[in-house]
């Protein structure tokens, strides 16, 4: 209804504003209505200069407007009267007051919850775990109470913004049964503890941690059996102790969701993307179909190289590839086997890990390097408290969660408290991860003025994409040269060098896509009951085989629980956000590069020091979660969709080259 008025008012406004009439803005209207009217007036006043008669004479123009305005002024007044009747209730006022208090209390409670979680993640003890459970209970109980209060407001006539906030408050997936809620929190801390403290022990008695030991073996060893050992030991260490707890966890989370009217927890997870009729899966499937041909080319090329390295008896040149040969514990990114697959080995090297060590980089210098980039485009430096309170290396006196993360302590602007927790190693991959985590921090800092409810990403995928977008610039040879990490390259390099460069990037970005997609495909089906606990592992591998074209190096059974070997499963962190991010970051990069005036192929673009690109990014980040994500996408790229054409364009020269290399290969694995 309000929209109809809007169009009307808009028309009236054009005629009125330049003719000297003051706009009646009676105070019987709600504050929100008045604000909307004011906004309309401002919009219209900027448009007004366009209205002029055809002959362009100023006097004629003014008179035309004036007489039109006089004719319309009576209608305008009638409109205002009917508007007063239509909605002059103090309800929205009351609701806005309630929201203001809600947001402030939420801020304080989330700050408290973050402190308890930080304490546990940087020092895993039973005592700290118990505090996490307590504070989670407190926050859940409060949220449920507030949800009930919130539901009492009839929001139907309220402004979109107020409606949006109520919409967020009145969605919950938590059970009102305290015991169930407590159990969910307890299992969560137990699973994360298993993941973060498990080790694999050698016959000698030495026990190896995931980070850095087992991950290091997967990255560096080229000994088939040693790789098998590390791959298998990690899964044997964490999977079986997790399996039953995980099944119980899923059931409890589903009960919470169902109590609130949702079919299962997966519906709630997907809800973060605000897709009409729960169509997120359709959207990501559509994107995957478009990038799959590129992935298939990369897969066939890498399979051939691995077969040459390990022998045809270990790696066939057709079908699925054993999962432990990709330089990564989960075969999610393949950059660590760049040395095996490098197309043109005689071209100058582009991996800077060794150079970083030679130049005496340490974690702090890596963080400062990342910060300098963000600052160069006009984003904020890390505050002093960041340096004082972050954990950037693994401490040796206690157990911690080493998987990287970025933390917002819901500070008031001016009293900033944001931190990163990471067990940094000196190599290019971790330099990339630092940019990833710092991207989260820049988002926190840029939306700190938003209401607490809106202190989040436009969707979770946006949050994941910020730092990765920046790292696309950082990892160009051009930029690495600027910061002194690449020395032996001259100006413009030839095609062979570019193919090396693109292939290295594809090992990180293209290889990841099916992995990013399948994790939540598995969990969505687990939540919906389509995959039952007795099929957890079988179905996990069915998806790994289908999407990634890889297979387990040894036989697996349903006693095993291989999903648990990946951090986001025991920590309960949704994963489709990364699939979204890996596609969106190329859209962002394309838009920012255009803003920066880059010319040349997209993969050579470095937005370093471009204040224009930075302003464009900042503008999007400052929106936080205040609008549905297509609007944020539009603010930065001009389009409102997740669109793989940017990533495809980026890798176009590589895809062409791969097709040529693979012309005699049997593509695929089905
Ligand atoms: C991304 C980029 C490069 C490589 C790989 C990835 C995918 C994924 C992975 O498999 O490693 N990356 C991460 O998990 C990075 C950690 C994080 O920054 O995404 C972290 C995950 C996390 C950890 C604990 C609780 C919840 C989530 N996310 C954040 O710290 C975060 C996310 C949104 C807002 C604020 C902080
Ligand atoms: Zn992240």
Q: In words, what does this structure look like?
A:
There is one protein chain. By secondary structure, the protein is mainly α. It is built from 26 helices and 6 strands. The protein has helices at 2-16, 31-47, 58-86, 91-121, 126-151, 160-169, 178-197, 210-220, 224-259, 265-271, 280-310, 338-341, 353-358, 363-376, 384-389, 428-446, 460-474, 477-482, 495-509, 512-528, 536-548, 576-595, 611-622, 629-637, 645-650, 652-661, and strands spanning 199-201, 207-209, 321-322, 405-408, 418-421, 550-551. A two-stranded antiparallel ribbon has the order 1-2. The chain has a two-stranded parallel ribbon with strand order 3-6. Ligand KAF is lined by residues 332-333, 403-406, 436-437, 440, 463-464, 468, 571, 573, 578. Its cofactor is chloride; Zn(2+). Its EC number is 3.4.-.-.
Short description:
With 670 residues, this protein is mainly alpha-helical.
Number of strands: 6
Total number of helical segments? 26
Helicity range: 55-70%
Strand content: under 5%
Bound molecules: ligand KAF, zinc ion
Distance between the termini: 54 Å
Broad structural category: mainly alpha
Determine Rg (CA atoms, Å): 28 Å
Unreliable spans are 1-19
Q: Classify the oligomer.
A: single chain
Please state how the strands of the largest beta sheet are arranged side by side: 1-2
Write the layout of secondary structure elements.
Blueprint lengths: L1 H15 L14 H17 L10 H29 L4 H31 L4 H26 L8 H10 L8 H20 L1 E3 L5 E3 H11 L3 H36 L5 H7 L8 H31 L10 E2 L15 H4 L11 H6 L4 H14 L7 H6 L15 E4 L9 E4 L6 H19 L13 H15 L2 H6 L12 H15 L2 H17 L7 H13 L1 E2 L24 H20 L15 H12 L6 H9 L7 H6 L1 H10 L9
Parallel strand pairs: 3-6
Antiparallel strand pairs: 1-2, 4-5
Helix pairs in contact: 1-2, 1-3, 4-5, 5-7, 7-9, 8-9, 9-10, 11-20, 11-26, 14-16, 16-17, 17-22, 20-21, 20-22, 22-23, 23-24
This protein binds ligand KAF and zinc ion.
